[in-house]
Amino acid sequence: MESGTGDPPRGRWYPPTVSGAPNLPRNQSLKRALAVVRAMSASPTGLSATELARQVGLPRQTVGRLLTTLADEEWARRSPDGFRWVLGEGLAQIARAANPHRRLVADSQRPLAILAKDTGLSATLAVHESATRVDVITQVDPPDLLAVVDWIGRDVPPHASAGAKVAMSGLSDLELQAEVRSLDMRRLTPHTIVDREVLIREVRKARRSGLATTLDEIQEGLSGLAVLVPSKGATPLTVAVYGPSARLRPIRSEAIASCRRCAEEVAAIADRTSEARP
Questions:
Q1: For residue 72, what are the CA distances in angstroms to 86, 88, 90, 152?
Q2: Per-residue pLDDT tens digits for 114-169
Q3: Staple 111 to which of 96, 141, 167, 265, CB 3.0 to 4.6 Å?
Q4: Residues with Cβ within 8 Å of residue 64, at least 6 apart in sequence
Q5: Would you state the CATH architecture of domain 1-98?
Q6: 140, 173 contact by CB (below 8 A)
């Protein structure tokens, strides 16, 4: 029984919080559901219910009920093969509503849609939150791409990310070496760059060209390329395309040209958006 002072029940521990209400009990079902959402967000291609249960430390039946409820609210959906779970459009809509870049997102849909159509790959726009953190804020997929990966909000290891390589290209050599030394360069596929000197060379190439690639480094059969958006704003941006390696390889040169055209148009949009901001 709770005391009249609002203290949590004895025998239970509530972690410290910055919400301003440290003594109020938390809703454990909601915390479990959010743990499942976070686990899904960390896997670009999705996870099965069994894999999710293992990751969040909950019974398979509990995770199944949570996923069904999340799916009812469009916070989760099954992947096209029916065996895995990924984030749903309802959650993406909520994220977009809280997005400080929502005007840029809205105005960039047309050039991104053209990029997706021209390349047959998923087109993304991302902001550089730091030298190694690149957050995708919007994505447009071509209609004929079956195995779509939702990159919005995904936490991709920077040593395997085309966008992060472009982001790191803005560092000086000393800053770059320090940043690369701090990375957890775990191997994700046989093609993942795990040699720090090789990654530094890749980033230096991106510095010269404004372009970086990831070729089967995140997941076998999945590749992408990213280009820097030449905007005048304080926050750097990248335009990228991602999709099946077999689709990207034959059109690499054309995809680079399409990305650069899109980046030029997005730069003009970003500069107008920045000037119009009060």
A1: 14, 10, 10, 21
A2: 999 999 999 999 998 888 888 888 999 998 776 667 777 777 889 999 999 999 99
A3: 265
A4: 49
A5: Orthogonal Bundle (1.10)
A6: no
DSSP letters along the chain, please?
Answer: ---TT-PPPTT------SSS-TTSPP-HHHHHHHHHHHHHHT-TT-B-HHHHHHHHT--HHHHHHHHHHHHHTTSEEE-TTSS-EEE-HHHHHHHHHT-TTHHHHHHTHHHHHHHHHHHTSEEEEEEESSSS-EEEEEEE--TT-SS----TT----GGG-HHHHHHHTTS-HHHHHHHHHTS----SSTT----HHHHHHHHHHHHHHSEEEEEEEEETTEEEEEEE----SSS-EEEEEEEEHHHHGGGHHHHHHHHHHHHHHHHHHHHHHHHH--
List, in sequence order, every residue forming a beta bridge with 238; answer none if it has no partner.
126, 228
Start-end ranges of CATH 3.30.450.40 in the chain? 99-276
| Topology of the domain covering 99-276 | Beta-Lactamase (3.30.450)
Which regions of the chain carry the CATH code 1.10.10.10? 1-98
Q: What's the pTM?
A: 0.65
What residue has token string 């994700």? 188
